[in-house]
Amino acid sequence: MDLTQWLSPWLFALTLLFNLRAAWKLGIDWKGMTTTVRFIRTAYTRREALPTEETLERETEAPVFLHLVAAYQEPGIAATLRTLLAVRYPHGKVRYVVVTKAEEEAAPHPAMGVSTGTLCRRFIAELPPYEAKRLTHLVMPGSGRKAEQLNWALRPETLAALLEDAALDPRRVFVAVSDADSIPDPDTLRWIAGEELGGPGARAYQGVTLSLANWDRLDTRGRICAIQQSSIFTRVSLARLINEPKRIRAIAAVVRVLPSWLGRCARPLLEFCFRRSQICLGHNQFVRLDVLRALGGFPTRGATEDSTLGYMLGARGIAICPLPMIELTDLPETKEKIIRQNARWYKGVLDDVAYLWTTWRRAPTAFNLAQLIRHVVNKVVEWPVAAGVYPLMGYLGWHFAYAYRAEHPILFGLAVAVPTVSLFLTVWVGGIVTQGEIQAMEPYLPRPVALRWRSPGQWFLATFRCQTYWLLATRAAWRVLWQLARYRRYQPTKTDRVMVTAPRGGWLGRTAGRLAGGAGVELDRSRAVE
Question: What is the value of pTM for the model shown?
Answer without folding.
Answer: 0.90
